[in-house]
Design brief:
The chain is an alpha/beta fold and 207 residues long. It contains six helices and five strands; from the N terminus they run E-H-E-H-E-H-E-H-E-H-H. The longest helix has 19 residues. The chain is globular.
Length: 207
């Protein structure tokens, strides 16, 4: 009863420095008929599909989600906030938000509030004179996390630690406390949804 679904990295970009060669993929894989057939099988047997992708891919992924309305899809790491490599120095927020709007319009898509400690997100935490406090993380993450909450609602959002990958930028407890600070303005039921209830429901976990 512990096997809930499949996680497939779909992260692709023309800038090869951003892509992990251990997880080879292609730009058009989300549109591939054979790949979509496999996803349809997941839906038939009651499994979920987790995606790790970059924000420029969100329109293509939204089209895939619309074509598979019975498949619960979990969009990992806030939809791939990438500001390194070819995206370094660019203001990507508007384009990222536009893609998230498309994903949020698909009722079968959920989002993990995670991954903002990765170097790919380029908040520069690793260059700070001291490790970031939870207050510092919360301030940097606020626009991204609160936008996702506004678009998807707490019942379609779930917290994720992304450890040990994020360990190079912040301690586990500091990252968790930062998220607790951001969610403090929500109601108790909404916080419970993000920290427990959404994941338990989507993945079919015992309470």
């Amino acid at each position: 009863g512990r096997f809930c679904g499949i996680r497939q990295p779909l992260a692709w970009d023309a800038d090869a420095t951003l892509v992990n060669p251990a997880y080879a993929t292609t730009e058009g894989l989300p549109n591939d008929p054979a790949f979509r057939h496999g996803l349809a099988v997941l839906a038939e047997v009651g499994l979920t599909f987790d995606i790790w992708a970059f924000y420029p891919q969100l329109p293509r992924l939204a089209a895939m989600a619309r074509a598979l309305p019975q498949l619960p899809i979990v969009l990992d790491h806030l939809g791939g906030v990438i500001r390194a490599g070819a995206y370094g120095g660019r203001d990507i927020f508007s384009d990222w938000r536009s893609g998230m709007v498309l994903m949020a319009a698909c009722p079968n898509v959920f989002v993990k509030l995670s991954g903002l400690g990765m170097r790919l997100s380029a908040f520069g935490f690793e260059d700070w004179a001291k490790p970031p406090s939870s207050e510092g993380l919360a301030a940097a993450w606020r626009p991204w996390v609160m936008t996702a909450l506004d678009l998807f609602g707490p019942d379609r959002c779930m917290w994720g630690s992304n450890f040990p990958v994020d360990k190079g930028n912040h301690a586990y407890a500091i990252g968790l406390n930062a998220m607790q600070r951001l969610l403090a303005e929500l109601g108790v039921g909404e916080r419970d949804a993000v920290f427990h209830d959404t994941a338990a429901r989507v993945y079919g976990l015992a309470s």
